[in-house]
Design brief:
There is one protein chain. By secondary structure, the chain is an alpha/beta fold. The protein folds into two domains: 68 residues; 84 residues, Arc Repressor Mutant, subunit A, CATH 1.10.10.10. It is 36% helix and 15% strand. The chain is built from six helices and six strands; from the N terminus they run βββαβααβααβα. The protein has a four-stranded mixed sheet, sandwiched between helices. Helix 4 crosses helix 5. The protein is globular, with a radius of gyration of 22 Å. The termini are far apart.
């Protein structure tokens, strides 16, 4: 008895990539010109974090914070962050001067929720302000140190440009990504603004 010849195409399995469930928080970790950063967004698409995570320990801490403050449903889903990644790449390449991303300050303290929007709205690309100037702008003229602490824990680095704030002497002071990253960002903006 002879077996009939069957074309393999008739029985070839269909291979599809796995479909991950929707997540309350999607994130990706990117190596950038200024350091390793974690970008995260909520299920509505608003950016929750653009934060420096130089080590896996830092990454785990930030993911735990997102889980505690936003939702325990946190998944690595790079495609969900494509637009934020594109804008960050364009900014770091000098092609973009203002981010067009919705943000959510879920990881921010009450004081940061006062300081960060004022910073973003008042210190433009290529400009600098001092901690004291920003303290006066939020009507807390004696809170320059508190402003510095708020900016030092900014959950949306680069997107909400805390790198543009310097000491009253003009000196660079603390930055979550390190002083070299802060100088790099200021130099980038100075070149593009000239």
């Amino acid at each position: 008895m002879t077996d009939p010849i069957v074309a393999l195409g008739d029985f070839a399995p269909t291979v599809r990539p796995p479909q991950l469930p929707e997540s309350d928080v999607s994130y990706v970790v990117e190596d950038t010109a200024i350091g390793r950063m974690l970008l995260a967004r909520n299920d509505s698409g608003a950016l929750l974090a653009s934060a420096f995570v130089p080590t896996e320990v830092d990454e785990d801490r930030l993911l735990a914070r997102l889980s505690a403050r936003v939702s325990p449903r946190v998944l690595r889903q790079p495609a969900a962050l494509d637009e934020a990644r594109r804008q960050l790449d364009d900014y770091l390449a000098g092609r973009l001067h203002a981010f067009d991303l919705r943000t959510d300050l879920a990881l921010a303290s009450d004081f940061q929720r006062l300081v960060l929007p004022r910073l973003a709205g008042s210190v433009g690309y290529g400009q600098r302000a001092t901690y004291g100037q920003l303290a006066r702008a939020v009507e807390r003229p004696h809170a320059a140190r508190a402003v510095g602490a708020a900016l030092g824990a900014n959950p949306l680095c680069v997107v909400l440009p805390c790198h543009r704030v310097v000491a009253s002497s003009g000196a660079l002071t603390g930055y979550a990504g390190g002083l070299a990253a802060k100088q790099w960002l200021l130099d980038l903006e100075a070149r593009a603004s000239a």
